[in-house]
Amino acid sequence: MSACPAELWHEQLWHIPEEPTAYTEFWYLAYHALFWLDLYLSGTVEDFAPPAPFTLDELDPAGLLPQRPYTQAELQSYLAHCRRKCQATIEALSAERAAQLCIFGWREMSFAELLLYNMRHVQEHGAQLSLFLGQQRGLAAGWVAKAKHP
Which of 21, 55, 59, 150 is the 20 to 30 A CA-CA neighbour of 65? Predict the structure, then answer.
């Protein structure tokens, strides 16, 4: 996200016929990845509440978009929140928690499986965003071999 120039923040990564263009804009894909990272680190929808200014609209079956595009600063703050939550979740992970069944209306798996699923989801969207920046401006996000300490 930090490598994205302001003029590309609202650009579409690709076109999906019959869909609102915002679904494929850079800012939205970054937000989408962070929202689901945050939710899946919680392990349940019932106790989940994203930090302000974010809402639960992403869970709406109607596919609601946020009321406005989020800024780079807002999503950088959300990323910092998710990094802290991820580190705390992994540090506190026990065998019992890893085996705990997580049930969502669309998926059911152990918490350990959910963490792996979550990682793949973030990697998928991170790769899409990085590819877009490379195609548009020759910018490289760079490989992150080790996470920064929050």
Answer: 150
Query: Longest C-alpha distance within the chain, in Å?
Result: 47
Q: How far is CA 1 from CA 110, 133, 146, in A?
A: 30, 10, 17
- Which segments within the chain are labelled E, that is strand? 101-104, 107-110
How much is the pTM?
0.90
What is the span of the domain harbouring residue 104? Answer: 6-137
- Are 80 and 69 in contact, with CB atoms under 8 Å apart? no
In a domain, 80, yes or no: yes
Count of the separate structural domains present in the chain? 1
Q: How many residues does the chain have?
A: 150
Which tens digits make up the pLDDT trace of 32-81?
A: 999 999 999 999 999 899 999 999 999 998 888 899 999 999 999 999 99
Looking up residue 56, the CATH number of its domain turns out to be 1.20.120
